[in-house]
Amino acid sequence: MSNSREKLFIGPKLRRLRMGLGLTQARMAEELAISASYLNLIEANSRPVSAQLLLQLVSQYDVNVAEFGGDGDARLVAELHEMMRDPMLKGAGKGIGRAELEDMVNASPGVATAVLKLYEKTRDTDQRTAALSEKLSDRDKVELLEESARAVERVRRFIQENSNYYPELDEAAELLFKELDLGKADTYSVLCDRLAQHHDLKVRIVPTDVMSHMLRFYDRHSRRINLSELLGQSGRCFQLAYQIGMLEQRKTIDRAVASGNFADEETISLARVTLANYFAAALLMPYRHFLEQAEGCKYDIDMIAHRFGTSYEQVAHRLTTLQRPGHKGIPFFFIRIDIAGNVSKRFSPGNFHFARFGGTCPLWNIHESFQTPGKIHTQIVQLPDDATYFSVAKTVHRAGGSFSRPGQQLAVGLGCHIKYARRLVYAESINIETPQPTPIGINCYLCERDDCAQRAFAPLNRAVRFDERARGTSQYQFDPDS
Length: 482
Description:
This protein is α+β, with helices and mostly antiparallel strands and 482 residues long. The protein is 44% helix and 12% strand.
């Protein structure tokens, strides 16, 4: 064995050299003044190369003798061996010894190098993800975060798969809207009467010191629905419509939930609540009438809210559900963030990408909404795939409003592909034909733009480099090809 280590076997390298030169074995053998059978034995690693033949190869084909040495291969084999021992591979490399790795390097060094590079990138990404997890969890509760997010992500996927459109619930809501004549009567009074006459339920407005942490509570024992005094009129109507949905459309809701094939009760309950909310919005803003009003005022959200007695956020969310075949509205995406940039709700019917975790791009002016509460902010944005969108953002306030308990301020973003923008009142003074979009990313961790002055974190799949002699617009410099 030790004697074989002193000999130089260059079979695969010699074969690659010959094929790279476009030579047959017979032609190379002739040029080297050796027999074709001997050359075949060398290429098969059945014979070592002699010093004389090695010098002849260098002279004949003008190659570097170091290319036939073993130092580089030995390093590659060592690095691959280390890779196979990494716990990240979970034992996949168990039993693979140096001999097999040497065979791999000898036969296909390019493939071996590519595998090693892929491993290094994966390891680096895992390390950065772990670092991100630590940043996300100063309370060392990442596992808890993942558990709580699981049901939310499953329901979001369920909504996405159905394009946020549930025809049975929409049709049932339209029928009830007509039956109750909601378009001509006081909505709150009509909903209270419905609950009283059909379900023997009374509605009571409760002081906040009695319901300090709830906005609605269905008290089955007392046959009452308690609503917090902190709810505005649109919020009270929505909560009553939700309760009617739960009571009268439970079978329809459960059929829709069953189509999601959810395994755990937590996800089933969340999906049920989500669809009851869907019904509530459809009852207050019935599909066909709502679409007509939206198209008629060019999707002026505030105007629509006035006409239906609903809130800005309720209207914005309802606009994402207009997917009825033959009667579709603009396919909007929707996002809601808090003042820290945390995303609490998101939906996209098309190719607008939202990150699963983390915030949004700081270049997107939805963040500027908090500087001027109540003002509409418009912007044309472009994602890294060059898709261009028109967005509208505005702050909204959740239920609350007392001195000791101020209501939460959120920003709601609504947007669509640029081709639909001319149908919006918000784009009337903007040049849609030759837009100058703001380039944005998904979020800093997933964005690979290398010239962003607003970058807060390096991308997870890029190697960061720091130059002691220079300071860029961002402190995170990286090689886009890394």
